[in-house]
Design goal:
It is a single chain. This protein is α+β, with helices and mostly antiparallel strands. The protein has helices at residues 3-6, 10-24, 52-57, 64-74, 85-105; strands spanning 28-35, 41-48, 79-84. It is 54% helix and 21% strand. The longest helix has 21 residues, at 85-105.
Length: 106
């Protein structure tokens, strides 16, 4: 596993997504994940769907393709799919709980 994601801040990621949901309501995001050697899916990032208006008006805007390239630099083999933000938040919370249990065993 890549160092960036082996000691990952699932709490911060879940909190960021929860804040986004609180501010914007439920919405569809790109959910990024990879599969471990024992075939578990580990979700590690999310990003918004492309927004043509934001791309025109915001000079700091990044497209999904640009974010994919940043992820590839750290983790060459990953997957992404569209899902509801609230569903992804539940996954992040579950991963955080599992990560905490694993850390307490180690």
């Amino acid at each position: 596993m890549v160092d960036k994601y082996s000691d990952f801040d699932y709490v911060g990621l879940a909190n960021n997504l929860a804040d986004d949901i609180s501010n914007c309501g439920n919405f569809v995001v790109w959910a990024y994940w990879y599969t471990t050697y024992d075939k578990q899916e580990v979700f590690f990032e999310y990003f918004y769907l492309d927004n043509l208006e934001a791309a025109i008006t915001n000079p700091k805007y990044r497209s999904v393709a640009e974010v994919d390239q940043l992820v590839i630099a750290e983790l060459p083999l990953f997957f992404r799919k569209k899902m509801e933000a609230v569903d992804l938040l539940q996954i992040f919370v579950k991963e955080n709980r599992e990560w905490g249990q694993k850390q307490s065993r180690d």
